User: Fold this.
Amino acid sequence: MFNLDATIDQVQNSKKTMAKAIITNPEVSNLVESYIDSQTAFVKSSTKFFTDLGQHVGNETIKAAQDAAKFDYIGYADRFVRAVQQPFAAPNKESKAK
Assistant:
């Protein structure tokens, strides 16, 4: 399946590299790097969730389409037409005699 981890790592590593180049204080640099690591974990987990969700929805859609293809539409239409026509059919001779 489609995986964005390499792209996410590339973007986040670019942020870290830029932060190290700009921030000279090692204490602040470590905090910023920790923050970027937290962002990375969040983005990866949310990306995985939505990828899994999309895959599940796709699988369920395929399953529903396959189930719909198995349905007997002609038999259903035949039963429907008979049910609709039955009230309008000519009365039975036996039912008049009663």
Residues 5-89 form one domain.
